[in-house]
């Protein structure tokens, strides 16, 4: 399913400039419609929700539509959508709300490939006697072994936390299989999908995760985030809002201080954009259009990734960190590498001069970078592409990299 790349790029005003944006895992560009929705909310309906007067009712209706949009996006019920400013905050809220359910001697399993957002909040429970176990990747392949997970899970395991796609490796983890292992042990699964959500359609029912969270500003939207939580799981969580919020009052008991209304309204534009791509491919509205849109997105990104990895793999000095497969099922279009013992910063600085935005470092997935000895060379070089990037931009990047490799 081909993507009309000229149409796509015309939707993003920032792409009309001289820079090629290949740091999208840090935050994507936004279609014009997203910015227009944010502006429209602030200029026409910027009042507090919950009152009886008409502008307040209109504001509430608009904000509630965000849950409808992301319920379509994730294939769940609108009442299972929790909103917040970013994934880091939502996972901290979730961790706090689990305090009453995690007792001394209970176990949480974490990975060393995750962004710190899905590690730090859970480590705090160790202060209360909760046991932390580490599911570490293979030191050579960087893969997470499901057999190792089975060996870690016990009768006291309450939670397993894992990323759907690594923001450094680009590797797609088999969440449905992991969920089966976790649920067979009577535990729950928390999935950080920040690095996955811009690249593939999400179906939380098929994935079987109990909690699934990502930041909308990585998915062509404003600085906003959403978390799916299975309804019965959300109802069992502690209330972290005001004392007079009943425990059954979901999702609001998990949104202290209320959500950002203008960002919520603007975020709908990101869902609409993906649906429009799907309709252009011949799909009907709604969920079918979202899936078709991401089919087209995935194929475009596969071609971009193949062009870059083929080049990197041809250079003896380069080590790609993670899988070199470019199959749609195996990885997203985030590619990290190192060049011998060279400083990754030096390589990025050279590319900056060509007006191409990439980055080096640990990207807050510091544990995997530290444990594999990559901090000494200023971390890894990361190229994170999305569907609006082009093969010509990849060729520009290759030309800029060539003198440095």
UniProtKB/TrEMBL annotation:
Superkingdom field: Bacteria
InterPro entries for this protein: Aminotrans_V_dom, Cys_dSase-rel, PyrdxlP-dep_Trfase, PyrdxlP-dep_Trfase_major, PyrdxlP-dep_Trfase_small
Location of the Aminotransferase class V domain: 21-397
Keywords: Pyridoxal phosphate
Keyword Zinc: no
SUPFAM superfamilies assigned to the protein according to its UniProt record, in alphabetical order: PLP-dependent transferases
Pfam families registered for this protein in UniProt: Aminotran_5
PANTHER family in the record: CYSTEINE DESULFURASE, PYRIDOXAL PHOSPHATE (PLP)-DEPENDENT ASPARTATE AMINOTRANSFERASE SUPERFAMILY
NCBIfam families: am_tr_V_VC1184
Protein name: Cysteine desulfurase family protein, VC1184 subfamily
Originating organism: Aureimonas altamirensis DSM 21988
């Amino acid at each position: 399913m081909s993507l009309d790349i000229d149409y796509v790029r015309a939707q993003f005003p920032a792409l009309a400039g001289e820079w090629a944006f290949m740091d999208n895992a840090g935050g994507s560009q936004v279609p014009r419609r997203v910015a227009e929705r944010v502006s429209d909310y602030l200029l026409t309906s910027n009042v507090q929700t919950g009152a009886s007067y008409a502008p307040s009712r209109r504001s509430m209706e608009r904000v509630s539509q965000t849950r409808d949009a992301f319920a379509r996006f994730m294939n769940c019920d609108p009442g299972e959508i929790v909103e917040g400013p970013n994934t880091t905050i939502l996972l901290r809220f979730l961790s706090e709300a689990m305090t009453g359910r995690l007792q001394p001697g209970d176990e949480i399993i974490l990975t060393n490939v995750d962004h710190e957002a899905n590690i730090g909040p859970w480590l705090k429970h160790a202060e209360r006697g909760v046991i932390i176990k580490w599911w570490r990747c293979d030191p050579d392949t960087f893969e997470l072994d499901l057999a190792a997970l089975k060996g870690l899970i016990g009768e006291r395991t309450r939670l397993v936390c894992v990323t759907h796609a690594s923001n450094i490796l680009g590797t797609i983890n088999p969440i449905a299989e992991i969920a089966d292992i976790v649920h067979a042990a009577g535990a729950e699964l928390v999935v950080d999908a920040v690095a996955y959500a811009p690249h593939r359609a999400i179906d939380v029912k098929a994935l079987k995760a109990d909690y699934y969270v990502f930041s909308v500003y990585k998915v062509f939207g404003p600085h906003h985030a959403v978390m799916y939580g299975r309804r019965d799981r959300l109802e069992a969580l502690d209330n972290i809002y005001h004392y007079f919020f009943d425990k059954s009052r979901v999702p609001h008991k998990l949104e202290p201080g209320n959500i950002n209304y203008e960002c919520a309204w603007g975020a709908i534009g990101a869902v609409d954009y993906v649906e429009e791509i799907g309709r252009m491919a011949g799909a009907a509205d709604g969920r079918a259009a979202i899936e078709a849109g991401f089919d087209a997105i995935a194929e475009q990104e596969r071609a971009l990734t193949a062009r870059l990895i083929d080049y990197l793999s041809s250079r003896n000095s380069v080590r790609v960190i993670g899988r070199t497969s470019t199959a749609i099922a195996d990885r997203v279009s985030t590619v990290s590498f190192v060049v011998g013992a060279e400083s990754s910063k030096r390589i990025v600085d050279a590319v900056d001069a060509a007006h191409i935005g990439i980055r080096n470092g640990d990207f807050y997935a510091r544990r995997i970078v530290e444990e594999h000895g990559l901090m000494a060379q200023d971390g890894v070089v990361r190229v994170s592409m999305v569907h609006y990037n082009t093969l010509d931009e990849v060729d520009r990047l290759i030309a800029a990299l060539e003198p440095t490799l």
